[in-house]
Each structure stands twice: as structure tokens, then as C-alpha cells.
Design goal:
The chain is built from five helices and no strands. It is an all-alpha fold. The protein has a domain at 11-77. Helix 2 runs antiparallel to helix 4 (44-59) and helix 4 packs antiparallel against helix 5 (62-80). The longest helix has 19 residues, at 62-80. It comes from Channa striata. It is found in: Synaptic cleft.
Length: 108
């Protein structure tokens, strides 16, 4: 085993993977996911990542290391697919320094 494998750590602790798996399987999360998407959530990847993390702690296998890295890359890529809901400002509004009129509603 080379030095780079002994220094490498999983992107998350194994307890984090287990916690995410338990949250995914929770009744509240299953209800929310079913209400939102019409299906129950798939928690298979969290379980697989937990198993791979534990295998890494015990055996330091390069296959397990690559599987964890691939899973995290896929998770990050999935999060980046969605555009932001709001357009981000580059500069503050021109009148940012003017005090708000407390007596008038802001919606007018």
C-alpha cells in the first residue's frame, strides 16, 4: 500500500453516510418525498456509500476509494444541474443608502 492511500480520507465521515441513510429512510422524509415527487426516495446510494466507507476503514481498497470519489462527484454534479431561483446582484441598488419610509407599505 502506497503512502497516498494511507493519507486519503473519505469526503465525509462514515457516520455522516449512515446519518444521511437514516434520514432518507425516515417516515417524515418518505412522506415529504412522496408528496413532492409522487415516489418514495431511493436511499440505496447512501447505504452503498456507508458500506464503502466502512470497507475503506477496514481494508483501504483502491476500488472502494474510487467508488466513494465517484459517488461524491455524481452528487455534486447533480446539485449543480439546477439554476439558482433568484438572479444574483452584481452591485447594490442605487438607492440602498436612503432610509426606508416606515409609514408607507413597501408593496406600493
Amino acid at each position: 500500500m502506497d503512502k497516498s492511500q494511507t493519507l486519503w480520507r473519505p469526503p465525509r465521515g462514515c457516520d455522516d453516510y449512515l446519518s444521511e441513510f437514516r434520514h432518507c429512510k425516515s417516515l417524515l422524509n418518505c412522506f415529504h418525498h412522496y408528496y413532492t415527487y409522487g415516489t418514495t426516495p431511493s436511499c440505496k446510494q447512501w447505504k452503498e456509500d456507508y458500506k464503502n466507507c466502512k470497507d475503506w476503514e477496514n481494508h483501504r481498497s483502491s476500488e472502494v476509494k474510487e467508488a466513494l470519489q465517484r459517488s461524491e462527484r455524481n452528487r455534486v454534479a447533480e446539485q449543480r444541474k439546477f439554476a439558482p431561483v433568484w438572479k444574483l446582484r452584481q452591485d447594490p441598488p442605487r438607492d440602498w443608502h436612503i432610509p426606508l419610509n416606515q409609514e408607507k407599505p413597501q408593496d406600493t
